[in-house]
Amino acid sequence: MSHAPTPSQTVGPFYGYALPFPGGGEVAPAGHPGTITVHGYVLDGQGDPVPDAIVETWQPAPDGSRTGLPGSMRHDPASGKVIGRNGVDFTGFGRAPTDADGRWAVRTLPPGGVPYISAAVFARGLVHHLFTRVYLPDLLDAEGGAGDALLESLDAERRATLIATRTDPRTYRFDIRLQGEGETVFLEFS
To answer: What CA–CA distance (Å, rounded) separates 153 from 130?
Structure first.
């Protein structure tokens, strides 16, 4: 009996099983008074929600430090599997899966030294994850990003895809459009 070769795969679906961990979107220490929420939807080219994506975030601490605190992840002593955060330390790293409606959320602290949170998107149909930035409008200067090389390099329509909308004093909405009209600006690193 002859078998055809296994077809190549795009990212996933393993990432939905292997990458999420309990409390992945809870970046801020429990009960911290400076916590902000950044949330939104991951949308495909037709504007439909992607229910099985993951949004990974990284950022400096509010004081601008980028080292993070190692050891805040708790592991099961028998299996070594991540079972959550310790709830005390800020590491600057988050990993939030989308729900059935394509919605994701992280609770974090405002980044120091930069006006944005870096993000990567893992989703079905992607050969490689996509990198972008979530700019927080109240951290941008009065000119809407003057001095930020990336924002200055973009026309107003493309720039708008990187700037979150503040929906209340501690909450920001940032939808990620993978392609099509209003596609989020994605970055390439080599």
So the answer is: 19
Q: Report which of 108, 103, 115, 118 is spatially closest to residue 186, judged by C-alpha positions.
A: 118
DSSP code for 93: E
Compute mean pLDDT per 10 residues along the chain, 190 residues long, and list them.
Answer: 57 57 85 96 95 94 81 75 76 91 97 95 86 95 75 94 96 97 91
Residue with tokens 């602290």: 109
- Determine which helix (DSSP H) or strand (DSSP E) holds 68, and give its type and residue range: none
Q: pTM for the whole thing?
A: 0.85
Q: How far apart are CA 40 and CA 37, in angstroms?
A: 10
Q: Are 139 and 108 spatial neighbours (Cβ–Cβ below 8 Å)?
A: no
Q: Is 131 exposed, middle or buried (0-12, 13-18, 19+ CB in 10 A)?
A: middle
CA atoms within 13 A on the CB side of 178: 25
